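@channel sequence for tomorrow's demo:
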Amino acid sequence: MRLCFLVEEQYRHDGMPLEVIHQLRAWGHRVDVLWPGRSLIRISEAIQAGSHDAWVLKTVSGGPGLTLLEAAASVGLTTVNDVRAIRGVRDKALAAVIARGKGLPVPVTYAAARPEEFAEIAEAEFPLVVKPADGSSGRAVRLVATPDRLLEPGGPAGPDGSAGGLLIAQPYVPNSGTDLKVYSVAGELYATERCSPLHPAHAVRERQVPLTPEVARITAEIGDVFGLDLYGVDILLGPDGPVVVDINDFPSFRQVPDAVARVSAAVLDLARNGARGREACGGEASVREGAQDTQDTQAAGRTGAAASPSTAQAGAAAAPPSPFAASSVPRPIRPAASIGGGR
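structure tokens (generated this afternoon):
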């Protein structure tokens, strides 16, 4: 297969996706890499119908890579993840509205262009977690205890008091100081725990942990609602149960066993069969509704293995089963279609 990866400057030395690119090449596939942040791209020539089997994006929120991916989708090329799904989670304000509208456990969310506007929120709802709507990697996330501390140094506001973009605020969910990060590799789910960026003094060893049925259901339903195949979900275990506080497309997959082989095989599978984006990021299928497809899903091998015999053997040899993986989460079968195919 011929694939094109869009990799932005922040990830030029990152194991994910560079090691995936090396693995795919080692399996005999052609992988081209475009660097939108540091090179001239002849976009009219680079993006042509039929030039690649799929385009894969690893970029920061708001980076130029997403525009290139959308250009590829506009001429009918398959993208991983589906470009409409990516746009739905890159804007955290939009993602919160979509998720709550589908009944997912997401905190009440407020949006404003300037942090002082959040002072209108009832003080009983403080402390608030304030962050940029287009943020990534924990950038500028802070805990604001009371309204009078919204403009303290170190917050998201610029020198003139503006945020330089939309901000969101959510009531703080009391928790142990440990974040649960759940990764999905085309239907395979893996749970890890790590220190919360809001509690850096709380010592937590990043490690893989067992996945509970409730967290697995929520994570799988997020993929279904947004149309994502490779993604991560940040979950807090609050006093009233799991709460979703962030969703990321194509994350780092840290602590996922044999992540490189698993993600590489998933990319090939998605390139062949098409990513599962939903119209307007609001598909009607859900994890519960998809239960009837479990046998068909398993028969089609949709557990992160590659679609071709040679690649499947390579992936299987490098990626043994994990005792923490939730491989039984049902996935609907997708027809082999490109983004431009009117799905």
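heads up for whoever presents: The radius of gyration is 20 Å.
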